[in-house]
TrEMBL record:
The keyword Electron transport applies. This is Thioredoxin. GO terms for cellular component: cytoplasm. The gene is trxA. PROSITE patterns: THIOREDOXIN_1, THIOREDOXIN_2. Residues 1-113 form the Thioredoxin domain.
Length: 287
């Protein structure tokens, strides 16, 4: 059992003082578990790691439901593991099952503000406005404040991309921490960088248009035009070009039309009407 001051075993005898009263001082994450529950055993070490990683910004309280059945019943625990977050004397949020670490961090960050995340948001705003030097200073400050915040690694890739070094940014993406591999922002940035790389090697837009008018089967010209459309934010035109490419030439650069459409979907909000419309068009063309 961990000897950390940020992880404690809770029973009916100390639940009031540790969880209820303690949650007025800092958030308390209560892990309801049982020894027979395999997902519980998977989740526990990760929660303990996060309790340390967050530097005491929350307390991890562990409740063995086999020994504390009354507590489990009191808080309506029907499946294991169930994790509840207490603030100011009451449960304010919960999740069930052994979620991956990025999702647990997202859960925690909704309730436990991190200064580094605030600095990160400011840095990204500065990148968007073109003040890359100031953005770099804020990222360095955030790293000094919270070196274990994995989101900072992605922000550094974004800064490299903002400087125009697409090749280096793509290499940095491949070196990101494992907990960011499936992050939607990573997928979106990877797509943007690949389109930027394609556009950088392309002829002028007018030359590409002329090539395509002369030969509608010119897959390279069509793909490069789509990349240029992406860079200027004209996703509708890019998707239309890529859809046509997918219909005409699935063999071009290993199905670049379909993969390009998927990359744009990653860049758009999941509820975006344009993405929904072109997903349907893509599926109709495929099947």
């Amino acid at each position: 059992m961990s000897q950390s001051p940020n992880v404690i075993v809770v029973t009916a005898a100390n639940f009031q003082s540790v969880v209820i009263d303690g949650s007025f001082e800092r958030p308390v994450l209560v892990d309801f578990w049982a020894d027979w529950c395999a997902p519980c055993r998977m989740l526990m070490p990760m929660l303990a790691h996060l309790a340390e990683d967050y530097g005491g910004k929350f307390l991890l309280a562990k409740v063995n439901t086999e020994e504390e059945q009354a507590l489990a019943a009191q808080f309506g625990i029907r499946s294991l593991p169930t994790v509840q977050l207490f603030r100011e004397g009451k449960a304010v949020d919960e999740f069930m099952g052994a979620l991956p670490e990025p999702q647990v961090r997202e859960f925690l960050d909704r309730h436990i503000p991190r200064l580094s995340n605030s600095l990160l948001t400011q840095a990204q705003s500065l990148m968007a406005s073109g003040d890359l030097a100031a953005a770099r200073e804020l990222l360095e400050q955030a790293k000094a404040e919270d070196p274990n915040n994995s989101k900072l690694a992605l922000a550094e890739v974004q800064l490299t991309a903002a400087r125009g070094d697409t090749t280096k940014a793509l290499a940095e993406l491949d070196s990101l921490p494992l907990d960011l591999v499936n992050d939607p922002e990573v997928a979106a940035l990877r797509g943007q960088l690949r389109f930027a790389s394609t556009a950088a090697e392309a002829a002028s837009e007018s030359d590409l248009q002329a090539r395509l008018e002369a030969d509608p089967k010119d897959s390279q010209a069509r793909y490069q035009l789509a990349a240029i459309d992406v860079l200027r934010g004209d996703y509708a035109s890019a998707l239309e070009q890529l859809l046509e490419l997918m219909k005409r030439d699935r063999a071009f650069e290993d199905d670049a039309g379909r993969k390009g459409m998927l990359a744009i979907f990653d860049m758009l909000d999941s509820s975006d009407e344009l993405a929904a419309r072109y997903r349907a068009k893509m599926m109709n063309a495929l099947y």
